[in-house]
Specification:
With 121 residues, the chain is an alpha/beta fold. It is built from five helices and five strands; from the N terminus they run βαβαβαβαβα. The mean pLDDT is 97.
Amino acid sequence: MKRILIVDDSETIRNQLRRLLEGKGYEVFEGVDGQNGFEQLRAHKGVNLIICDVNMPNVDGLTMCGKIHLDQDYKSIPILMLTTESSAELKSRGKAAGVTAWITKPFDAERLIAVLQKLIP
């Protein structure tokens, strides 16, 4: 079973994603901000993909992704940024921080699953 870590400060988004992903057979873990997300990544071995928001309290998503990208244990994990942000500047910063794919909220569930299946076949 593929394991996905969702990192978003919105409980509504986390719940929506959890229902969608568990319904497709994924095992799901959650983080409430970038700091907690990194802690959850370390606590749950074998995470296959991270879905992350940009704007979160304490540690934002891009900072968390950069930290993950620099860590030898985690840098190969694909990261899907799921956010309301769509500027070219932020996408460029995301790419530099190791972000693999970018989807803008509100998202289409079928498109999200299609992207996930490409990132973790």
